């Protein structure tokens, strides 16, 4: 199986000691994981950094331009759900 690099945005805010996370619910006709909840983002294209790929994906998906983002961590997953 080919390895796919992706970058995701985890939008959140904190209030009164609680953390609220925003997720998207995929449509019932989505090509991958219909009706599942997930984070915003997607595949990194050749030559892109994770940050550049994330900014492009968020612009495509939400029509929002991110001025800055913070790298959290890198994870490798060897299985996936289709």
Sum up the structure in keywords.
single chain; 82 residues; alpha+beta; Nucleoside Triphosphate Pyrophosphohydrolase; two-stranded antiparallel sheet; 1 helix
Structure, briefly:
Helix content is 16%, strand content 24%. The protein has 82 residues and is an alpha+beta fold. It has one domain: Alpha-Beta Complex (Nucleoside Triphosphate Pyrophosphohydrolase), CATH 3.90.79.10.
What can you tell me about this protein's structure?
With 82 residues, the chain is of the alpha+beta class. The protein has a single domain, classed as Nucleoside Triphosphate Pyrophosphohydrolase. Helix content is 16%, strand content 24%. It contains one helix and six strands, in the order ββββββα. It has one helix at 50-62; strands spanning 6-9, 12-15, 18-21, 24-25, 37-38, 40-43. A hairpin with a 2-residue loop joins strand 2 and strand 3. The longest helix is centred in the C-terminal third of the chain and has 13 residues, at 50-62. The chain is globular. It starts with 5 loop residues before the first strand and ends in a 20-residue tail after the last helix.
Q: How do the strands line up in the largest sheet?
A: 1-6
Q: What is the CA-atom radius of gyration, in angstroms?
A: 14 Å
Strand tally: 6
By CATH's scheme, which homologous superfamily applies? Nucleoside Triphosphate Pyrophosphohydrolase
Largest sheet at a glance? 2 strands, antiparallel
**If classified by CATH, what would the architecture be?**
Alpha-Beta Complex
Q: Structural class, please?
A: alpha+beta
Q: Based on Cα principal axes, name the global outline.
A: globular
Helical residue percent?
Answer: 10-25%
Question: What is the number of independent domains?
Answer: 1
Query: How far is the first residue's CA from the last residue's CA?
Result: 13 Å
User: Strand portion, in percent?
Assistant: 15-25%
H/E element sequence: EEEEEEH
Per DSSP, the total helix count is 1
Unreliable runs: none
């Amino acid at each position: 199986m080919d390895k796919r690099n992706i970058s995701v945005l985890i939008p959140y805010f904190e209030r009164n000691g609680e953390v609220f996370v925003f997720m998207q619910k995929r449509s019932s006709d989505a090509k991958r994981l219909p009706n599942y909840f997930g984070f915003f983002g997607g595949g990194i294209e050749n030559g892109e950094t994770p940050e550049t790929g994330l900014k492009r994906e968020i612009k495509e998906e939400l029509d929002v331009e991110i001025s800055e983002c913070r790298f959290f961590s890198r994870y490798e997953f060897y299985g996936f759900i289709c």
